[in-house]
Design brief:
alpha/beta, eight-stranded antiparallel β-sheet, 25 strands, 37% helix, binds fructose -6-phosphate
Length: 592
């Protein structure tokens, strides 16, 4: 979601530094972008809709000497995708430039009031009230940072706000949501939405925490909100290794990341025994465990519920992150909350975790991004080790989540070795699925499906989680309408949508669900459905069949990998422009 990058310092190419910084944040997903640079007494702005791609900064901006610049990639919330709505936004004097991530819930009240006072608005955004409110405070004689603090204290919602001020050549950042990281090198000070944006400049960083305000100018000053008490900034030296993201021989990160999966599963099988035992001990001793996640991570968590039940006879609860606030009344200091997240920045997970912490519950985060908000909030941290995931659509992070939860369930059952062996066998099967001859079969199915409007997917038990995850992959990658169901549910209503040749994908592992899921497949076929079976055993109900190894409960992994490939090739056949960045989506979802 919105990417933020800012620079103030000695270099007089501030706008170029910011533009390059924005490119490192492109993977987050956005629909427009903009850069503001201070020249003499005012800000000059360049804004565009669409992706940065291979564009260069407009010569009007790139030719200027500037030592202060901020830039933003916008994922629209209030107001459509237009040049006017792109950030940064200016006040009436063009000396205050603001960019923002979050939602200002009470902006309408201020907008009306400010228009009444003669302020000119050019966008439909909630953000634009901020520079004008600051302008009002400055007029009343407050200093710049106090004006930002007063303004921020007026706003409701979860927000990160970055303000550049031309007269003092300062950037002030303040937040109570969305991540912000500051960095310093000899030449200047930087602000970014994530560490990866800063790493080419510096490894000396500060994580801005919620309800803090920071001033970047000649030096750095940090304050607590709402009063503005000054506190000492603490720098962290980052010694993490950042892999250079490289598509290798692949045209898209999405495909590369699908092919990364066997190595990731093997790594978890070989090296995660201590991590799995650690998490298992917490589950064992907790009085109630709750797993949380959104989207793909929520389906990994749902699979975890089945793993813990089937492998370790242990009941754990599960909720999608955005619903957990309404279910959390029974949390106590004895409860364990396991947030599962690739980015570690999903606000719908972070917010309920914050509340759970307030209730004294323990937090054991399963995350992929080191240093992310969730990582820092957690009492126990389990890193997924999937490596940086660049494609917006989650693939290898899902496989890593499922592998870690599977190993944990086996650790809880004191059958760790069995879990490791199963994962190694799974990695081998995924390798086979990724071979050209198998992929060719998937491409042929994609060809058959390319003009279909609807696809239904069914599974029972842990394969119900597969059906949900596979339908999400199909929808977001190829834009086809796909719906996943528990096999038993279709006849309760949705079977009304089955017509001649409606494609239906059936996940049929060799487990206790096999007979029942085949009966459900028969019910659909009897109404004309075109049946695609995925599992270890062929059956004549299937019109097309893709064989996986029989991996008992781990069969979810090859099932999902096949679905990822199907989604990718369907997208290609349907002419989707860039499967790495599907329309309307963001990699890191930092607004509610
Ligand atoms: C779908 C996808 C999303 C994410 C969701 C949570 O392919 O990637 O559904 O799974 O936005 O993101 P994280 O895992 O970063 O919390």
């Amino acid at each position: 979601m919105c990417g933020i990058f800012g620079y103030v310092g000695k270099s007089n190419r501030a706008q170029d530094i910011v533009f390059e910084g924005l490119k490192t944040l492109e993977y987050r997903g956005y629909d427009s972008w903009g850069v503001a640079a201070k020249v003499k007494k005012h800000f000059f702005i360049e804004k565009h809709i669409g992706k940065i791609g291979n564009s260069k900064l407009n010569s009007k901006l790139s030719g200027l000497n500037s030592k202060l610049s901020i830039g933003h990639t916008r994922w629209a919330t209030h107001g459509g995708v237009t040049v006017e709505n792109a950030h940064p936004h200016l006040d009436c004097t063009k000396t205050i430039a603001v960019m923002h991530n979050g939602i200002i819930e009470n902006y309408e009240f201020f907008k009306k009031d400010l228009i009444g006072k003669g302020h000119m608005f050019v966008s439909e955004t909630d953000t634009e009230v901020v520079p004008h409110l600051i302008e009002e405070y400055l007029k009343k004689g407050f200093g710049f940072s106090t004006s930002v603090r007063n303004t921020f204290n007026l706003l409701t919602g979860l927000n990160a706000i970055i303000v550049a001020f031309a007269p003092s050549s300062e950037i002030v950042a303040v937040k109570n949501g969305s991540p912000l990281v500051l960095g310093a090198d000899r030449e200047g000070l930087f602000i970014s939405s994530d560490v990866s944006g800063l790493i080419s400049h510096t490894r000396k960083i500060i994580f801005l925490e919620d309800n803090q305000m920071i001033i970047l100018g000649k030096k750095i000053k940090l304050f607590e909100l709402p009063q503005g008490k000054e506190i000492r900034p603490v720098f962290h030296k980052i010694d993490w290794k950042f892999e250079k993201e490289d598509r290798g021989k692949f045209k898209y990160f999405l495909l590369k990341e699908i092919y990364d999966q066997p190595k990731i599963i093997e790594n978890i099988a070989l090296n995660y025994s201590q991590e799995a035992k650690k998490l298992a001990r917490l589950v064992e001793t907790a009085f109630g465990t709750f797993m949380l996640g959104c989207g793909t991570a929520s389906y990994a968590a749902l699979a975890g519920v089945y793993f813990f039940s089937r492998v370790a006879n242990k009941h754990v609860n599960f909720s999608i992150g955005s619903e957990f606030n309404y279910l959390e009344n029974y949390l106590t200091p004895q409860s364990l909350v396991i947030p599962i997240s690739q980015s570690g920045e999903t606000i719908d997970v972070i917010e309920p975790v914050k509340r759970a912490r307030e209730k004294g519950s323990k937090i054991a985060a399963v995350v992929n991004v080191l240093g992310s908000t969730l990582y820092r909030q957690a009492d126990t941290k389990i890193m997924l080790g999937a490596g940086m995931e660049k494609a917006v659509v989650g693939t290898k992070s899902f496989t890593a989540m499922v592998s870690v939860l599977l190993l944990t369930a086996f650790a809880l059952a004191k059958r760790e070795k069995e879990g490791e062996r199963l994962l190694r066998k799974t990695a081998k099967n995924v390798r086979e699925i990724l071979r050209d001859d198998f992929v060719l079969k998937i491409k042929k199915i994609a060809e058959k499906l390319k003009d279909k409007e609807h696809i239904f997917l069914i599974g029972r038990g842990v394969s119900y989680a597969t059906a949900l995850e596979a339908s999400l992959k199909l929808k977001e990658t190829s834009y086809v309408h796909a719906e996943g169901f528990a096999g038993g549910e279709l006849k309760h209503g949705v079977i009304a949508l089955i017509e001649k040749d409606t494609p239906c994908i059936v996940f049929a592992p060799n487990d206790e669900t096999y007979d029942d899921i085949l009966s459900n497949a028969q019910e659909i076929k009897a109404r004309g459905g075109f049946m695609i079976g995925i599992g270890p055993k062929e059956n004549n109900v299937f019109d097309v069949f893709l064989k996986t190894e029989d991996l008992s409960i781990a069969t979810i992994i090859p099932q999902v990998v096949i679905s990822q490939l199907l989604a990718f090739y369907l997208a290609i056949k349907k002419g989707v422009k860039d499967p790495d960045k599907p329309r309307n989506l963001a990699k890191s979802v930092t607004v509610k």
